[in-house]
Amino acid sequence: MAPIERITLFKIPNEADRARVLEQYKVLAKTATKSASFSYDGKPYIVAAAVGSSIPDPRNKGYNLSVKTTFASMDDMKYYDNECEAHKALKACVGPVNEDVLTTFYENIL
Known about the structure:
By secondary structure, the protein is an alpha+beta fold. The chain contains three helices and four strands. The chain has helices spanning 15-31, 74-82, 85-94; strands spanning 4-11, 46-53, 65-71, 100-107. A four-stranded antiparallel beta sheet has the order 2-3-1-4. The radius of gyration is 14 Å and the shape is globular.
C-alpha cells in the first residue's frame, strides 16, 4: 500500500494567529498518537509532517500557511480526521482564525 500524502492550505489573515497555528502544529507533531482507548498502541502514526508560512506569490491565491502530512494508510488519515485528540486541539486553534482551508490527498505512486 502506497503512503497517503495530504496537502492542507490555510488563509489566516493575522500574522499573530498564523504564528499560534504554527506552534500548535509543533505540539501536534509531538503528541499525535493513536489512543490506547481505541485499542491502538499509543504510538505516533504520522509518518512525516512539514509546515510553514507560504512564500508570497500570486499563485498562492491568498493561502498563506502550507502543510504536508504523510500517513502510512488511508485508515491512519481517517483516524487523524475523526479521532486524534491532537488534531482536535489543532482544529480548535485554527477554526476561529481561519478564513478558508483547502485540503487534498493522494496515494504517492513514487
